[in-house]
Amino acid sequence: MLAYAAGDAAAFDALYARHRGAVFRYLRRQAGNAAIAEEIFQDVWLRLIDARASYAPRAKFTTWLFTIAHNRLMDHFRANARSALVSYDDNPIDDVAADTPRPDESLARKQDAARLLAAIEALPAAQREAFLLQQEGELSLEEIATVTGVNRETAKSRLRYAMGKLRAELREPERT
Fold it and tell me: Is the pTM of this model over 0.90?
């Protein structure tokens, strides 16, 4: 980011290539709608471009970037009078099992992925966000706390409860 702020346009390309997937997946799973996620995603990168002249590395770059993504997501929910994060609606399961050689293995992977997505969707919004920031953004507890505006212990509790609920849900036999 410092190189980009100094005028190196190729540095932006490197930042975008390195972080676009994680940021989009985070927004996609939180927004629950591809069009909304895409709109917020574009705005995140526009804000990064606008901030290049004033950027100062006060935190790790990914923390700063996911803070922008989080804030834009919250702005969207406030603007649309939604008090809670919505769930992930689409089913990306075909991508998860695309390289499995046997149909029965593919089906099992699809079912496992569906159970995982349903379990993530069932998490309370704050726990889901902490989990996704850790998994998609690869953020530490301190970084999650910074992004979400809570203290480290609150972020740790949210993540711990999320992991516990996911483990419990995935241990149970599939319900029919």
Answer: no
Please report the sign of the dihedral spanned by the C-alpha atoms of residue 171, residue 163, residue 65, residue 150: positive
Tokens of 136: 């998609």
81: left (phi over 0), alpha (psi -120 to 50) or beta: left
* CA 18 – CA 132 distance, rounded (Å): 17
CB 148 within 8 A of CB 156: no
Asked if CATH classification 1.10.10.10 holds for the domain at 2-90+123-171, the reply, yes or no, is no
Burial of residue 106 (number of CB atoms within 10 Å: 0-12, 13-18, 19+): middle
Rounded distance between C-alpha atoms, residue 98 and residue 63, angstroms: 32
Check if the beta carbon of residue 69 is closer than 8 Å to that of residue 136. Answer: no
Neighbours of 100 (CB within 10 A): 14
Domain spans of the chain, in order of start: 2-90+123-171
Of the CA atoms within 13 Å of residue 134, those in its CB half-sphere come to 17
DSSP state of 87: P
- Return d(Cα 117, Cα 119) in angstroms, integer: 5
In the prediction, which pLDDT does 85 show?
Answer: 43
pLDDT in tens, 10-24: 999 999 999 999 999
